[in-house]
Amino acid sequence: MPEEIDQLQSIVETYTNKLIDYSPQLIAGMIILIIGFLFGSSLSKLILRVCAKRDIDVTLSRFFASSIKLLIVLLFLFIAVRKIGVDISPFIALLGAGALGLSLAIQGPISNYGAGIAIILTRPFKVHDTLTLHGCTGIVSVVSLGYTQLETEDGQVVTIPNKKILGEILTNSFTVLVVEGIVGVEYASDPEQAIECVRNALAKVTGIDPDKPPQIGIKEFGDSSINIEYRY
Question: 3-class SS at 180?
Fold first, then answer.
């Protein structure tokens, strides 16, 4: 028992002496890491302010700011670890291998993020625009780095990965969308009265652009009906 106590005291003294010897390096490493975190946070806030002044999209500006902050913190972390005296070469090799494996595993999300950055930079559409894509029409409710969401007129939310948008043919009606329809009435009916009925019905529809009143008229005389077309 006394021998075990002596061994334990010897181990404690050894590690205590090492801690005392390496305490300047540890303190210096902690200071470097704190400086890196503060510098990264300050630069991130500066990037957000500059992007806000230049009306850059909020999603893209936050992505840039967070990415820059992460890179700076990682850089100062490597410097701090090296200051302590730890060889960072194995960590760099491990990080490179991990990054390669991670990139192969998340090719889909990365391609979505790349497409999202391209969409935000080129701005082919924005929130509240009416978009038709892949046979789906809806109002753009969310534009993020990974996906875009459309809200259809019946309240459904359609989520489209950004890589499915980039390079595709899309129709942007902006804040308005032309609605067309045909009403058929029998030949015995008064077409002027039918047109007036359609006009009265459209007058009760909310959301019609007041600067562009509905267009109503006879489209054709069909085989069994007079076809009245309306556009608004």
Answer: strand
Q: 137, 129 in Cβ contact below 8 A? A: no
Helix (H) or strand (E) holding 136: strand 136-143
Gap between the Cα atoms of 203 and 71, Å rounded: 58
Q: What pLDDT digit, counting tens, does each position of 89-133 carry? A: 666 666 666 555 555 444 566 777 778 888 877 888 888 888 888
Burial class of residue 60 (count of CB atoms within 10 Å of its CB; 0-12, 13-18, 19+): middle
Pick the CATH number of 180-231 from 3.40.50.2300, 3.80.30.20, 3.30.70.100, 3.30.1200.10: 3.30.70.100
Rounded alpha-carbon distances, angstroms, from residue 95 to 42, 73, 101, 111: 26, 15, 10, 21
Residues of the chain short of pLDDT 50, as ranges, are 104-106
The pLDDT of residue 101 is 57
DSSP line for 27-43: HHHHHHHHHHHHHHHHH
Q: Write out the residue limits of the CATH 2.30.30.60 domain(s) in the chain.
A: 124-174
Q: What is the DSSP letter of 143?
A: E
Please report the pLDDT score of residue 212 as a whole number: 85
- Rounded Cα gap, residues 190 and 176, in angstroms: 32
Q: Return residue ranges of the chain for CATH 3.30.70.100.
A: 180-231
E runs forming strands in the chain: 130-133, 136-143, 147-151, 157-161, 171-174, 180-185, 215-221, 226-231
d(C-alpha 82, C-alpha 76), whole Å: 10
pTM of the predicted model as reported, rounded to 2 decimal places:
0.51
146: nearest Cα among 107, 112, 178, 102: 112
